[in-house]
Structures are given as C-alpha cells and as structure tokens.
Amino acid sequence: MSVTAAKGFQAAGIAAGIKENGNPDLALVVNTGPRRAAAGVFTSNRVKAAPVLWSEQVLKSGQLSAVVLNSGGANACTGPKGFQDTHATAEKVAEVLDIGAGEVAVASTGLIGLLLPMDKLLPGVEAAAAQLSEHGGEKAAIAIKTTDSVHKTSVVTWGSPRTESGGGWTVGGMAKGAGMLAPGLATMLVVLTTDADLESEALDRALRAATRTTFDRVDSDGCMSTNDTVLLLASGASEVTPEYAEFAEAVRTVCDDLGQQLIRDAEGASKDIKVEVVGAASEDDAVEVGRSIARNNLLKCAIHGEDPNWGRVLSAIGTTKAAFEPDRLNVAINGVWVCKNGGVGEDRDKVDMRYREVHIVADLAAGSETATIWTNDLTADYVHENSAYSS
Amino acid sequence: MSVTAAKGFQAAGIAAGIKENGNPDLALVVNTGPRRAAAGVFTSNRVKAAPVLWSEQVLKSGQLSAVVLNSGGANACTGPKGFQDTHATAEKVAEVLDIGAGEVAVASTGLIGLLLPMDKLLPGVEAAAAQLSEHGGEKAAIAIKTTDSVHKTSVVTWGSPRTESGGGWTVGGMAKGAGMLAPGLATMLVVLTTDADLESEALDRALRAATRTTFDRVDSDGCMSTNDTVLLLASGASEVTPEYAEFAEAVRTVCDDLGQQLIRDAEGASKDIKVEVVGAASEDDAVEVGRSIARNNLLKCAIHGEDPNWGRVLSAIGTTKAAFEPDRLNVAINGVWVCKNGGVGEDRDKVDMRYREVHIVADLAAGSETATIWTNDLTADYVHENSAYSS
Description:
Largest interface: A-B, 64 and 64 residues
Number of strands of chain A: 15
Oligomer: homodimer
Radius of gyration of chain A: 22 Å
Helix content of chain A: 25-40%
Number of helices of chain A: 10
Distance between the termini of chain A: 29 Å
Order of helices and strands of chain A: EEEHEHEHHEEEHEHEHHHEEEEEH
Number of domains of chain A: 2
CATH topology of the largest domain in chain A: L-amino peptidase D-ALA esterase/amidase
CATH class of the largest domain in chain A: Alpha Beta
Largest sheet of chain A: 6 strands, mixed
Structural class of chain A: alpha+beta
CATH superfamily of the largest domain in chain A: L-amino peptidase D-ALA esterase/amidase
C-alpha cells in the first residue's frame, strides 16, 4: 500500500544498477492530482546533501508533482557536480512525465562522498516511469532500502473505508532508515501521501507537528545524517477536506508507526528502548534529558547486557541543564522503581529484561511535562555493521 | 614513583576487602609538609557522588593533609547514608593521622548506587596508615584501579635532578580510569603531588589550566562520571618556589601524560584517535567540533574497521554551531587529505590505518584557532566489557 494507498498517486521501484549487487535502487512517486500540494522537513545537519539542497528549494512553492529517490549513493559532499547531478535527475523526471523540474523533489541515500552513476540513474528514471502504477507503493518502498532488513510502510484511513464510491481519506507512507538515527531527523527518507484535499500550509503544519514528536525523537545512535528528508504530498483525490486536527492526528500516527519500524530495524540492535521522561519542568527539559539518556553508550551497553543499571541513567541526567534536584530523581526500569529519591529503590533483581522492549521512566520530580525518546541498545553487531559497511 | 616522587609525601595501597576479589582497593596519600596547600577539580556532572560533595567542601580552605581513595564502590547515589560514610572515612583518617577531618579529601570509584562496606573500609584505613611510606606511590596507584588494565603514574622533575642536597622540584601523580571518559572530567581519580613551595591559589590556577586542555579533552565514550576528582597537593618540601609558568607547564605535562595513559587503556579500544581541529574561528568552536567528531559512534566504528570514512567526519561537523562553510571543509586522516573543500580529496586508499594511533585533522577554514580531543574507536570489546560489567 505504502505511498499508493491514498488515491491520486502512482509509484514504481526498480533496479537501475546504482547498487552493485543488483538490488532495487530507484523509486518514483507521482502525484496524479487533481491537487499537487506538498510539504517537507529536512535534516538540520549543516552539511546537507545535494538532493536536500535541491528539494528544499523546489518545496518553497508548496507544490510537488513527483519525487524520485535512489538508494546506493547519498550524493552528499559531492560539490557542484553532485548538485548538477541532482538537477539533471529532476530534469529527467520532468521530461518523462511532461512536467517542470521545479515540481520534482529528489532524495538519495547511501555512501557519502561518491558521485552517482548517472549513466545508470537516468535510464533508470525512464524505466521507473514506464512501470508507474497505483499498486507500485510496495516496490517503491523496497527500492529505497540500504541496510534496512525490511521495507517500512504505514497507512491510516480515516472515517469510512476507502471504496470506489469514495468516503473517507487516507494517509500512507514509506520510510527507510536503519542507522545514523538521530534527531533532526533520523537518517531516513520518508514519503507520505494523502488524498485529503488540503493546501500546502496545512500539510506543512501537520508534518512539522508530527515529526517533532515522532521522527525527531527516534535516536538510535546519536548520529545525524546529511540526507534526511520527509515529504508529504496531497492529491486531493478523495475530494474530502478533513478537519485539521483529524488530519494532523492521522499524519502523526503514520509518522509514529514508521518511526517505530525504524527503531525496530536499527542496525545490530537487540533491544528497543523507550525512554520516557516525566515530571519535567518543561517539554524542552524532558527532551534534553531523554536524549542524554538515549545517547549514553554505557547505559546502552548495560541494557544490552540486561542490567537495570539506574546509576548510568542518573549519570546521564546529571550532564543536562534541566531543572531537577539529584536527591529527588526516580527511575523505573520495566515498571520497577529501582531508583527512588536519587538513591537505591526497589530490588533491581525484580526487573525482568528478557524481552526486546525495555521501558525506562525517568522522573525529574520538577514539574508535569513529559517526552518520550526511542533508542536501541549498543551491541557488538552494531559495531560490526558499522565498521564493515562504509556509509 | 607516582605521588611519592615529590618530597614531603607518603602513601600506601592495601587490600581492605572492599573488592570481593581481594585486589587492592584502598589508597592513602599524606602530605608531611611543611606546607599543606591543595587545589582540586571535580566532575561537572550534577549528580555528584558523596566523596565529591565532601572533598569540594573541605578544599575551600585550600589546605589538605591527606587523601583517602577507594576502588570497589563509587558511593554515588547513596543518599544521606553515603555522605555519612564519606564523613566517617575522613574522620577515621583524621583520627589515625592525628589531624582534622577537614584536612582530608575522599575519593571513591566503582559501582554506583551501593553503600560502601564500612566494616571493611574503616579497618582498612588503619592498615593503610600503618604502611605509609615515601616509597608507597606505586602501591597507591595500584589500589585505585577498577577496570584499568595497568596503573598509571607520571613524574616531571624540573631543573636539577632531585637529590638529598636539594635542587629542583617535582610534580608527580597517579590516575585511574578506563571508561566513562568524557569531559568535565573523564571518569578518573587523579592525585598529583609536588614539593614546590606554592600556595593554593597558584596550585588552583595551574591545575585548572592544565585540566582544561588535557583531562577535559580526553573523551573516550562521551559518558561523564559522578566521581571525577583531580587533586593537587603541595608540600613545599623542596623549599623552591618555581616560576608560575614553569610550574604550570610541569603540571600540564603530568596531566597530559596521565590523560594519554587513560586513553591508551580505555575499555575495549583498539585505536587511539587524535582529533585535531584547525582553522577554527575560536577555541570554543574547535573544542565543540572536536567533541562532536570524537563522540560520533559511526565514525568510531569506521575507524575500528580501518575505514578512512571522512563523510562521517563531515556529518559530525555539520551538527555543530561552529563557524564554517560546508564547501570549505578539509579532512586529513593519517596525513592524507581525503576531503578537500567539502568533497572528495586525495585517494582514500593512500591512508594507512594499520597502527593503533589514528590522527584526524579537521580544517574548518574559518580562522586560526585549534584544539585537540583524544578518543578511542568503538569496538565489540567495549560493548562486551560494559554490558557484562556493572559500574
């Protein structure tokens, strides 16, 4: 279903030969209208890949007719030639679809610092265009994988089920990402589509609100990518203009689902860790504390070893500027308050850590704000994947 | 030699039974004068162990007669009882040495969140006092080890060699630390001694200047401890008051040497990585960029895999607020400028990464300031040590 679950979209995914192993590596998503509104959120890394620079520019119009995505090469740190290649890719899409290049977003993922093989990519665009289909969403999702073990898609249909006779509207999407997951955003490419009839301003508002509490709070390894891109395209094909709050909730639900799928597929991970900060004086404090816990390598190792090491949680909290008193901190791991008032709490032997999901609650006892950050454990497999694989 | 290289100091290291394996775990360092000036620098973690809270307090006088250190337990996150135990430890030292408890600094290292076995520690103080010797520096250094594979000591003697007839002065010291190394400070206990005749103000100034560019720039795993303590004690026994600049340089040299020893002994590491940032607009920028590179797990994995992955260096630089233009960044790895002007530079196959030391130079091309941060690679052994060992 993926990006073609919503009406008014076609997609394709093919093997263009960008990846040496012959796996699918080029995806095309086309908005067939009637509306072509769009919004996007990009990496906050100041070293931005050429396709990010391009797509930020074209999105200023609030309109997109197509998105072309490739895996097998990030086209980051590739200088003026890299930007020319992105431009040429958009021009090629425009040519085969008979639209303007300024309506085409480009996204790339893979190794940094290598030019893309344009002699393969440009013919690939033609081949993908020839296979565009209202059932092409899954193939597109598969074509953007890098080290992902599975492709990731999600769909929410609001109101009555989608039928030929209409009724309701849908938000669907696809994502890729399995490492270099950190806020602002995770290393991800995400394309969301909807047949809701909305203008770009509403899309932008809903997308920013959704990513702020979903993708931006997925922090697998603290490493921020040069290529992160999240796009939301609206076709208006449902002819329904939903209430903003309902639409925003649907977008948030899809983003949350895709974010969870990213964490569950993170490179080498054996535990998914939900870090829930409560009792914070402000949401910013809660996020800062959550990130500092989520990025603590020693804690991530301890969780890997199924050790409910609350001392490492307190060590991490202590590095932040958040409002708290050390002797009022409480920490629960999988429901057991192993740390109370900054010291020893319930018996740590009561903590059952056999399952993949681990839930850490850090109570700052300084207010009523909360935030949840998702991360993974740190494992020998993570080291192996990232020392053997150049990305 | 260690803390007894300088005249006017005695030390001892014994096994008090705090560690279940029977290894040495209690050290005592005594300043026999005539001067008893002292200075200290402590963790900037807001969750501070009881001995840190105690020692910060007693150091306000600028005077210390003794330092008692234990491994086998950090006495962190142990509440009022933990602080009472630290106080009782200082009182015991005061009693056996016939001094005031307010002249005794306490330092602890080991597992967080456990109370110390005072029934073993207090008799241990008596036993250590009975073994105090001007040759006890090595034993003291051995007794503060936790996961350290070797004990760490360093000595600088300034001017003419130390002889019975006097002449010259000495700065010596011991350190422990092998993980949780991060700025402000690394997880370390360090005691430095000197027989230079200086007041506490000069000691404090020299110590802060030295730690700022040495221990504070050793960043093994980005994790900041609750117990970091660096103390500098002066006996005045050389009867020489050195020039401040010479003394500061000697302190810096000993701190730098000990910091290097900490990095070389970091848990599970197979590479020591020198991250040198040059061309920065300010020293703060250089430090911020250096830390962001040093803490990038993906880069640390790549270095482990002997992959000169400059793209991950640029990704890390891009997350900072430092002044730079992405298309002017240059990166050298082991002398080969693999990234020039933000893109591909010299052939990465020229980079020889077979040796333990790896030298990364990041040129921001934005000024003339520099800073060097030391870190390690991220290895499966690090994960193993920190998932199997509770600390």
